[in-house]
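Handoff note, outgoing to incoming analyst
You'll be picking up this chain. Sequence as last confirmed:
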Amino acid sequence: MFKTMNKIVEPVLNVNDVSRISSGTVIKGEISSDSDIRVDGVVDGKMYSKGKIVVGETAVLKGDLLCNVVDLWGKMDGDIYVKDVLSVKNSAVINGNIYVRKFQVEMGAQINGSCHMISEAEYDKYVASVVSTKPSAKETSSQKVSQ
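Most recent structure output, in case you need it:
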């Protein structure tokens, strides 16, 4: 949020924005993003994106993963919830359950858990119950203006 000439201007999200967690980086905690995420490092905690999450070959995820689309090459210890398509590549190792609408698995991938086919409504219901809801910048700015 930016203030110019007594007007509050919200930053515009670019659909091409990608948050990147590089190889050698370790993050502990919950990650939530409106844009895409690329992980090549280690994440210990829940990850949520309204876009796509790409889990590279060197990535290790420990915790639940929730998003619209996932391409997974790395290692995952936790449950995966995908609104649309999960693509599990040949080098992927998943230790956890999968909840997905569409599912693609390459030969050589390892999945140690169960797979449940879900609807978009089931995904939305689950995300609403799990993802912490914080007031948006717009809600926060309107509260400040009214005070």
